[in-house]
Design goal:
Length: 425
Amino acid sequence: MNRFKLTITLYIAIYCIFTSTVSIAQLEPHHYIGDISYSPDGTRIALTDTLDRCGYGEENYLTMIVDSHTLSTISTFVGHSCLLTDVAWSSNEQYLVSGGYEGISIVWNTVTEQQVSIANDRMGPGTHSLSWNPTDTLYVAWAAGGNGYIFNPETGMEVDRLPVEVVKDYIESIDWGINNVIAYGNRQGLLRLWDYDTRQELAFPGAHNAPIRVVKWSPQATLFASADENGIVKIWDSSANIINTLQFGTRVSHLVWSPDGNQIIIVKEREGAEIWDITTGQKLVNVITDQIITAIDWSPDGNQIAYAVFPVLENLIEVVEVSTLFPTHPIADAGADITILANPSGTANVLLDASGSTDSDGTIVSYEWSESSKLLGTGISQTVTLPVGIHTIHLEVTDDSSQTDTDIIIVTVEEERASSPIDQP
């Protein structure tokens, strides 16, 4: 290389270093919840409380366990030095494994609160998609560079890798099902299932037309879901048959199954989270809207959803009761059936009373009384004039979430009986 080229090369290198240093100095670290995971019994929540920049001291990159109801801290684990993105419970709840951008994974004993093992020097800068095998004897991690590694949690030693032909395809997401089958997707939109018992692999060529960002087994491992860069979510059975395809206009960052495997949470980048029905492919309800969700999980009993947003909440995470997401309908109560005598004109004034109607999660905002589709009144209490005969009166109530309920009351108006001679004085 001549002196002129060398001078120019050195100048460019120095300029790049200078501008990079300025840029890095201007980037302030942000508080970030990288992952949330309910314990299998649902009483505790593991989370990663971390800065989104590396090198600020281990005390800024925490793996924590909190009470799932009070959110009070139970345990804190310190040992990482960079952004944490994943945490996963073993099924026996004795262990946690955590990992992130520094390229290591650490297994913690949740009883003794001690570090069990650390897996490093085998992975690139980044460890994600941490997932345990069904017997808690192994766990799998996807690392930057597209490799899938399987580790012994007791020693931290690598014991296996995903089939070598997949490595060159750059794996993006991995999940280990209770059927001992590992599902994973790559940047080319290819899905694969690897049966760890038989070492047999099933490939899904052309499963997606964009990089696959998330792969997730259902709790029963009878179905799994995959989401790609273009916001396409596909639901598959374990034999590679498509059950449903959901299309969104933005990237999907998280998939979380309901405990019964009938519904799934779809987290859309910068747009919040929604619950969808797997069979019908219909959206059921919003969990949260217009928020950047960084982590989310569904409790094993199906009653709670825990999530974290950016900027971080004061309590780190929020827990919502699933029952509050699905409005319950009001209960209409038209009262007991009525029998009344008509007056001399052949009619009777009848007081209809709907004050026994209730709404457990809101307020009843309207009452409608009708007979044979004819509106009789709209009050909670309504006096109506009815002729002799048997009348079927319908009550419909509507609450503040537009949920409705109906009830009926039978009103019998009897003719006034004429006085007989015996009745005469």
